[in-house]
Structures are given as C-alpha cells and as structure tokens.
UniProtKB/TrEMBL annotation, chain A:
UniProt lineage: Bacteria, Bacillati, Actinomycetota, Actinomycetes, Kitasatosporales
Signal peptide (residue range): none
MF terms (GO), sorted A to Z: ATP binding
Name recorded for this polypeptide: ATP-binding protein
Organism name: Streptomyces boncukensis
Keyword Signal: no
Entry keywords, A to Z: ATP-binding, Nucleotide-binding
UniProtKB/TrEMBL annotation, chain B:
Lineage, opening ranks: Bacteria, Bacillati, Actinomycetota, Actinomycetes, Kitasatosporales
InterPro entries for the chain: DUF742
Alphabetized Pfam families for the sequence: DUF742
Official protein name in the record: DUF742 domain-containing protein
C-alpha cells in the first residue's frame, strides 16, 4: 500500500536510499564504492534468500542526515547470481552499470538485468591510455533505450565518482516519477 | 535451519525499539551476546542491516536471524527502505544529491 509508506522517510522514521554498482570483472566497482563511500566487504550468505556462502558484495555508506543513509552495493550480477541481483535490486533507487570500452560485452549481462526494471546509467570507466569513444557510440554498441545516460568517468577520482552517482540520482528521480506504481512492487522482491 | 518469513532488506534501518527497557536488554535467557552487540550498535542512531553485518564480520543471514529474534522480543524495530517512487515524492533525493556533493 502506497499510503502506508508515504512518511517512511519523513522526520523521525529512519530511511535509506539504495544504489547498486554493477558491471563486469575488473571494471572498477570496488574502486567506485570505495572512493565515494566507506568501503566494507559484506558476506552475503543467507539460506533464506538462497545466496550461497562465499558471495561477497562491496558495501559503502554515505550519511545524508541523521536517520537517512545512502547505501551503495557493488557486485557483478552475471554468472547465474540471480538471487544476489534480486536481493540488491529490491527497492533500489537505481543502478550504475560500469563499462570498459575494451570489454563492452561484459556489460551486456548487467544491462539486460536492469533495463526496463530499474533506472540506470552506463558509466564508462576511462582507464589510462585507452582510446575514448563518444557516449552516443557506446549507447549504440550497447543497444541502450533512448534516454539512458552514458557518462565518461574515472572511478579513481572522487569528484568523478560522485558525479556519476549524482547523475544517477537525477535520472532515477525522473524515471520513477514517470514509472507506473506497479513497477515499484516488482522490485520490492525481498523487502519487508 | 529455522524458517523465517521476514527477510529484512539490506538497506533496512535497524533501531532500538522505542520504549524497550534497554537497561534490561540482554538479561533474557535467550538473548545472547551477539544479539546485544547488534542492539548496542544501533543505540546512538539507526543502522542499515548491511552495515551491521559488515561491521560485525557476520554473514547477512546470521544478522537477519539475530534481528528476527530482536524484533520478535520487541527489542528492535526494522524500517524497510521506502519504495523509490515514494522517495521521489518525499524529496529525499534532493537531500541525497546535496550529501553526495558535500561528501
């Protein structure tokens, strides 16, 4: 029920905003979470969600104000980690799909997982010495839906990482305002 | 393994229950030291489930089981994240952007 939740982030009731950072191996997920938030490793094992032992997620938090926290979760969602993806995406505000232009194919799984389900931006981590490509070319190569932001970034740089997250939040704000409410219940998955 | 019907969201905020007699928490026969450690971590302000697990070095499943006990005995309250569409309406996101800029 929407009405019962409306004050969930109002004064007095503690709330959280959930942001997921995903992408292929070695693309900079841990670096992004660590440059923006306080990085910790989260052991995800839980028989009740089916996430197996040995699964870890990068976790970072940003204090917004007393009672409101932004939680960053960084993990790969490819390779059959469906339970993990569902758990991370439940009630998530949006997703950053990190990409490496040398291995754009690694980003397909992440895009497939979130497209149409949650708002997301593609952030191309510009590794030193790698040729730059225009965002429009990357959007075409990934076959993104029109309007999906593609950003160039350097996740080792704090300001660049912050800008990626700010752009995601701005995009998500527009996306959720336009989304039919039914969509949010799909993402509620494991939420209580 | 116990069956649980509550699966607390990773970003759900855990708070010590208002009115809980905190001085006596942990004195019950079945509240163990790990339960009281979780409660102690939330005493100053509410903490996300993920942060409690990461800080204590416990698995998410273990922390959820402890929280399930704490909620059952009335010692803790767990606030799930609001649906994102409601966060947009509540202008929470502007505060998040300001916090990111200031971080």
């Amino acid at each position: 029920m929407r009405s019962g939740r409306r004050d969930a982030d109002g004064a007095g009731t503690p709330g959280a905003v959930k942001i997921v950072v995903t992408g292929g191996p070695g693309v900079g997920k841990t670096t992004l979470v660590g440059t923006v938030g306080e990085l910790r490793t989260l052991r995800m094992e839980d028989p009740s969600t089916g996430v197996p032992a040995g699964t870890t997620v990068d976790f970072g938090r940003i204090a917004v104000r007393r009672g409101l926290t932004a939680c960053l979760f960084g993990a790969s969602m490819s390779g059959g980690a469906e339970e993990l993806g569902n758990e991370l995406c439940a009630r998530a505000l949006g997703v950053v799909v990190l990409a490496d232009v040398r291995r754009l194919g690694d980003s397909f799984a992440a895009v497939d997982h979130v497209e149409g389900r949650l708002p997301f931006v593609v952030a191309v981590n510009c590794f030193p010495g790698v040729e730059r490509h225009a965002p429009l070319d990357i959007a075409r190569a990934l076959d993104l839906v029109d309007g999906t932001p593609v950003l160039l970034c350097d996740v080792r740089d704090r300001d660049s990482g912050k800008e990626v997250l700010i752009r995601l939040v701005e995009h998500a704000a527009r996306w959720w305002e336009q989304a039919p409410y039914a969509v949010t219940d799909v993402t509620a998955g494991t939420g209580v | 393994m116990r069956q649980r019907d509550r699966v607390f969201d990773l970003a759900a905020q855990v708070a010590v229950a208002p009115g809980a007699r905190t001085a006596e928490l942990g004195a019950g026969e079945w509240l163990g030291p790990r339960h009281t450690a979780v409660l102690d971590a939330c005493r100053v302000s509410a903490r996300p489930v993920a942060e409690l697990a990461a800080e204590a070095g416990l698995t998410v499943g273990t922390v959820r089981a402890l929280l399930d006990d704490l909620v059952t005995c009335g010692c803790a309250v767990v606030h799930p994240p609001a649906p994102p569409a409601d966060q947009v309406g509540a202008r929470v996101l502007g505060e998040v952007i300001d916090a990111l800029r200031a971080a």
